[in-house]
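Much of the work behind modern protein science is quiet bookkeeping, done one molecule at a time. Below is the pair of lines this work produces for a single protein:

***
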Amino acid sequence: MSTSSGIGIPAESGTDASDLYRRMAQTFPRLTDEQVARIRNYGQVEDLRAGTALFRRGNRSADFFLVLEGNIEIYHEAPDGTCQVITVHGPHQFTGELDLFNDRKTLLNGRMGEDGQVVRLHRPQFRRLLAAEPDICETVMRALILRRLGLIQHGQATVLVAGPLTTADTLRVLHFLESNGYPVATIDPAGGPAARELLSRYGLDGRRTWPVVVYRPDRFLENPTNRELAQHLGLAEALDPTAVYDLAVVGAGPAGLAAAVYAASEGLHTVVLEAEAPGGQAGTSSMIENYLGFPIGVSGQALAGRAQVQAQKFGARIVLPRLVVGLDCGRQPYTITLEDGDRLRARTVVVATGARYRRLDLSGLARFEGNGIHYAATLMEAGLCESEEVAVVGGANSAGQAAVFLSRHARLVQMLIRGPGLSETMSRYLQDRIEASGNILVHPYTELTGFEGDEHLTRVRWTNNQTGAMENRSIANVFLMLGASPNTEWLQGCLETDHRGFVRVGADVTNRRMYADGAQPAGLETSLPGVFAVGDVRAGSVKRVASAVGEGSVVVSDVHHFLTADSS
């Protein structure tokens, strides 16, 4: 059995995640007398007896506890029913991990280890503490992030995903959980006697539909949808049907998360709707080395994870997995319709649904998606092609990042480029990496033209579009990083788009309205008043993470302008 190490919240630069629990002073800090005195002002002091339950796995909105006297035991129950104490918080230490920033179900149990005294802070009190006490906020946030990382790295508070690790549905479930920072343990049913014994212990030794997700000692799901998984594990949060948000952000890629951070930090009632997990297309990038402030690079998933916590700290709600299927553009506040029929209302909307990699028009493609055809290159996919030959299709930065990353795992990376080379489409630093690599082979003027295999991809064929020469290779994993198709189908004609479906904004909009004060609409406003578009979904956008983050930050000033003009 193996545990997953993928999460969107990384250790600080230069930190080995496997050493997280060795950073005891940061993961389980002990506050000063002066800090404890300040925290007392935000909550209530309680005397509690040994064994008193403070919170249990599955609770929502667990309180924050600071120990004054005695101790608090933090423990978890494994899927097989065994109980393990993870840590004991003594005087001047506090409880909690990342679930304190949202309304998802907590992963751990907490109880008084002995008679003692604590300061209890309910969620509103906890948020006021973080907002008013920056030094305490820094200490607490760092600890909560490191604690979640510790759970993942040490395989604690996990759910068990049992299934063949090369099948589409098993990979989909693992992607969903890991991208959302949920601790996961995996087991392959074909893993030999030890695997069969473990499956028998969970009652899974009979023939079943894989994958099976064991989330309680006596509870499991067979091949659940992402939505079912989120509901049973408590990742899904209920929406208030009576609420009217100042801003609804559709999409939690870099642009949408940036908009959420700035809007919430400036006091706007903000909700983010995401179909799967934070990160968007950037979340599939294994390493981004040219993003400002990260000299040794940062993965797209890590960047998104940090931004998510940052937005939640300021009070933004990030609701997932909730696929948006419609926007009622006939009246304000705008009504957004979700796939399950739920609706929410917002005075302004930021469209940040981004773009997806273009699918090849090849026979058999759909059959192999998730079974050898991939649209992401993360540690999970890299583990599937260790010491094997793989193919990367595409010539832009995302393809270059995938090729460089996979070259550290695969025996040989075949890079197929439709054009003459990389110079016109890829950043120079990636070109240099590829040229210096001893196991990346670039094929210019080359296109993928065929697949072979039964349940899983086994061979691929490519053709030189100049000479017509074909090559057939034994390759079981292909990574498609081709162009961009906008995620705008849900808009159903509400907004003006270009011929490719990207949303037009600002001066590119054909029919522009004027504000009551005579000002023209903001540069990121669409053809619909109070609806804005940022990031890759916007027509003419620069397909770079930094550009998307910049647009998401800037659009908040446009939102403020609209709200001010609308209320006058």
